[in-house]
Amino acid sequence: MAEPAVHDVVILGAGSGGYAAALRAAQLGLDVALVEADKVGGTCLHRGCIPTKAMLHSAEVADQIRESAKYGVHSALGGIDMNGVNAFKNGVIDRLHKGLLGLVSGRGVRLVEGRGEVVSATQVKVGDQVIEGRQLVLATGSSPRSLPGVTIGRRVMTSDQALELDWAPTNPLVLGGGVIGLEFASLWASFGAKPTVVEALDHLAPNEDLAVSKLLERSFRKRGIGYKLGVKVAEVWQEDHQVSVRLENGEQLSGDVLLVAVGRGPNTGGAGLERVGLAMDRGFVPTDPQLRTNLPGVWAVGDIVPGLQLAHRGFAQGIAVAERLAGLSPAPLIESGIPRVTYCDPEIASVGLTEAAAKAEHGEDAIETVEYNLAGNGKSQVLGAQGFVKLVRLAGGPVLGVHMLGRRIGELVGEAQLIVNWEAYPEDVAELVHAHPTQDEAIGEAFLALAGKPLHAHA
Ligand SMILES: Cc1cc2nc3c(=O)[nH]c(=O)nc-3n(C[C@H](O)[C@H](O)[C@H](O)COP(=O)(O)OP(=O)(O)OC[C@H]3O[C@@H](n4cnc5c(N)ncnc54)[C@H](O)[C@@H]3O)c2cc1C
């Protein structure tokens, strides 16, 4: 079938944001061209969410073998075969990639392979072809950042190279105590390493509620994961068998690899965006709440839009833009209502405002909190999960935030996000029955406590 001269929509980048926009737009009857320089699925599928979670699952299996005698099952960990870990990880990616390609072609999306350059608000050039659309969606995503003076190569790496290692580091240094740094420190520790995390801010997981950060630090220390907080790296150098860093306080650390996990910058250079007059802020593309850029007919989704860099935010933004292009009116996304999970051990899951943010927004006296300790939860005891569920509530009003820490606690974020996004009152949630024994009951128990009628907790 001949391609139309002008598509309803051209999408630049087929990561979470771009492919979600393409699939939804095609579902709504629009004619879609999707331009991708590398692989459909983008960072999340090939270099982000999925490979890290596959490796973290291998890590959990290793830990369970180590702990098995505690459960009356005698087994011994023979070793970590990184080729086997990578084969498992790549198998998961390949299956999902094939499925995604099938969805894209099944919905009739025209996939254009190659690097696109925006030549006008309606045209993208790929090699010699010009792909034209009535609307253009920018979804070029993000790439790892480094620090000034820190060159990526050999033993100094970003998550992209760390995911491809065919050996397990023994004493890795991790620069950055945010999501990516914590996940790698955790999985390397499970593979037998003694990692050290260096974080410039005062706590690990610095964007989370302070109670979460503090208990995570204690848990990491127990697992043999070291950390240096509130200090920056001044210098990095490599020798044959190690990499070393000097911290600004003069301390020197050495390891077999240095993972630079200091954030991700937008992929907006070299795609012709400045030339067509697109407004940018430090490389990111600001949008209005409907995800329109400053150029009529040009939209942006995913990591290039300032805010949380998460795949499910990209999916939601891509779907919302597609629906707007098809004449629907989806509600704008509320950034604080987007759930966040860090899949280290113990896991962190949160949604809504932290206690500090809630107090800053509503006043010190307007906020009530409660923490339910997983020690009182039967399923947590079975799983060996330690941690808590913390609720942040507007006094006499709805729940503003839910913050959780504990093994497998990420699975609870679904209920937490409904509670926060539907602005539930603790009294309403306290009436709901939670299945026993599940870790989910900890959410129910926390709400019983906040409603003034704790069951498995001291009043
Ligand atoms: C190690 C790691 C772990 C992560 N874990 C999680 C997690 O557990 N959960 C979660 O929600 N998020 C996670 N993320 C974040 C998540 O991967 C991103 O938020 C998400 O991929 C962003 O989607 P996107 O569509 O904006 O961009 P991307 O996924 O980066 O996709 C952009 C696509 O555009 C293409 N492209 C760029 N420029 C051009 C061009 N000029 N022409 C054609 N194509 C182009 C790229 O090749 C790429 O495929 C993780 C990220 C990393 C790095």
Oligomer: single chain
What do the pLDDT scores average to?
96
| Shape field | globular
Strand content range: 15-25%
The top-level CATH class of the largest domain is: Alpha Beta
Q: What is the number of E strands?
A: 22
CATH topology (level 3) name of the largest domain: FAD/NAD(P)-binding domain
Specify the CATH architecture of the largest domain: 3-Layer(bba) Sandwich
Distance between the termini: 70 Å
Q: Any idea what the CATH superfamily of the largest domain is called?
A: FAD/NAD(P)-binding domain
Helix percent band: 25-40%
| Structure classification | alpha/beta
Number of helices: 13
Largest sheet: 7 strands, mixed
Low-confidence regions: none
Number of domains: 3
Bound molecules: flavin-adenine dinucleotide
Spatial extent as radius of gyration: 23 Å
Write a concise keyword list for the protein shown above.
459 residues; alpha/beta; FAD/NAD(P)-binding domain; Enolase-like, domain 1; 3 domains; 5-stranded parallel beta sheet; 13 helices; binds flavin-adenine dinucleotide
Secondary-structure map:
Elements: E1 7-12, H1 16-27, E2 32-36, H2 42-47, H3 49-67, H4 82-106, E3 110-113, E4 116-120, E5 123-126, E6 129-138, E7 142-144, E8 156-157, H5 159-162, E9 173-175, H6 179-190, E10 196-199, H7 210-222, E11 226-229, E12 233-238, E13 243-247, E14 252-255, E15 258-260, E16 264-266, E17 298-300, H8 311-325, E18 340-342, E19 347-352, H9 355-362, E20 367-373, H10 378-383, E21 388-394, E22 399-406, H11 413-421, H12 426-430, H13 440-450
Parallel strand pairs: 1-2, 1-6, 2-3, 6-17, 8-15, 9-10, 9-15, 10-11
Antiparallel strand pairs: 4-5, 5-6, 7-16, 12-13, 13-14, 18-19, 19-22, 20-21, 21-22
Helix pairs in contact: 1-8, 3-4, 3-6
The chain binds flavin-adenine dinucleotide.
Flavin-adenine dinucleotide (FAD) is lined by residues 12-18, 35-38, 42-44, 47-49, 52, 115-116, 139-142, 159, 180, 267, 271, 302-303, 309-312, 314.
